[in-house]
Design a protein that fits this description.
Blueprint lengths: L4 E4 L3 E3 L2 E4 L2 E6 L2 E2 L6 H10 L2 E5 L3 E3 L10 E3 L1 H14 L5 E4 L7 H12 L5 E4 L4 E2 L2 E2 L5 H11 L4 E2 L3 H7 L11 H13 L4 E10 L2 E8 L6 E6 L8 H14 L4 H22 L30
Parallel strand pairs: 1-3, 4-6, 4-9, 5-7, 9-10, 10-13, 13-14
Antiparallel strand pairs: 2-3, 7-8, 11-12, 14-15, 15-16
Helix pairs in contact: 1-7, 2-3, 3-4, 7-8
Pfam families: Phos_pyr_kin (PF08543)
InterPro entries: PM/HMP-P_kinase-1 (IPR013749), PyrdxlKinase (IPR004625), Ribokinase-like (IPR029056)
Organism: Acidaminococcus intestini (strain RyC-MR95)
């Protein structure tokens, strides 16, 4: 039997030929050698869902921050030269996706990348990875929060967790669940920063659940999607969520449906990791769960065991 040829272009079928659109994503994250997060989380997820990932490392890390000790190398000085070369070669991208940055100074580099390669209505996704559980990551100070406010104004979609959403909007963080009115106000403040759509992860609800809130600039009120709160904390889960979300959006899903698919997949990955008794420092067992992205998603994905 002859193999069908796969080429890049508009999706269509012809006799003996299957032609498929491959979206090219410029992924601006750090590269961490040990502990699944950032690029080592984004690349497999986006690739599994049919996008080509073009890694643009912000820094090299020996291991993730949960170990307490690490070696790192800031790559800020290399990034502009790479962009110059891409422009010289006439290269382009279908989406730009930024995550963990090595320093607040890199915000200007990402804004430069958006200016060079993000025009024409392309998706520009910013995950303002800088804080969790009510506090900044230990490698950052308040200048990162101020710089992130500038960066999100250039995005079409931002995906802060609840702590980051509070920092971006100067909202006092409280661990208790926000009221519906407080959540609506938080979403409105985020949209006023400039993005066309926002998704807030890890919104407190009750002792058994957390919520994801999503809203576009054409919606009056946010949508809220709840998932089980699992007793397992680790790095990289936000990277997996946003990577899955972006991949589904690039495949034509609307925002709220993409949020549900991404949340269900992440819940499945965390539950699988928890059941295996994996050391949280190592991140989640992503490799053994990627198959879930290759089968049709259903509403009860989080209860799937097969």
């Amino acid at each position: 039997m002859a193999l069908k040829r796969l080429t890049i272009g508009k999706t269509r079928k012809k006799k003996g030929v299957f032609t498929m659109k491959i979206n090219r994503v410029l992924a601006i994250h750090d590269l961490c050698s040990f502990g699944r997060c950032s690029l080592t989380a984004a690349i497999p997820v986006l690739s599994a869902l049919g996008s080509q990932v073009c890694p643009f490392p912000t820094a090299l890390y020996s291991n993730n921050l949960t170990y307490g000790k690490f070696h790192s190398k800031d790559l800020t000085d290399e990034m502009t030269s790479s962009m110059d070369k891409w422009q010289e070669l006439g290269l382009s991208f279908d989406a730009i996706y930024s995550g963990f940055l090595a320093s607040s100074a890199q915000v200007d580099v990402v804004i430069d990348a958006i200016g060079r390669f993000g025009g024409g209505g392309k998706s520009v996704v910013v995950d303002p990875a800088m804080a969790d559980d009510g506090k900044l990551y230990p490698v950052f100070d308040e200048t990162m929060a101020a710089s992130m406010k500038k960066l999100v104004s250039h995005a079409t979609l931002i995906t802060p967790n609840y702590t980051e959403a509070c920092l971006l909007t100067d909202t006092p963080y409280q661990a208790k669940p926000p009221t519906d009115k407080e959540l609506e106000t938080l979403c409105d403040k985020l949209l006023s920063l400039g993005p066309k759509a926002i998704v807030i992860t890890s919104v407190p609800t009750d002792s058994c659940h957390i919520a994801i809130a999503s809203q576009t600039d054409s919606q009056l009120f946010p949508e809220k999607y709840e998932v089980p709160k699992l007793p397992f904390g680790t790095c990289g889960t936000g990277d997996i969520f946003t990577s899955t979300l972006l991949a589904y959006i690039l495949r034509g899903k609307d925002l709220n449906l993409a949020v549900q698919h991404a949340a269900d997949f992440l819940s499945f990955v965390i539950e699988t990791t928890l059941n295996e008794g994996t050391d949280p420092h190592e991140g989640v067992l992503l490799e053994g769960c990627l198959w879930k992205l290759l089968v049709p998603q259903t509403k009860d994905c989080t209860s799937c065991k097969g």
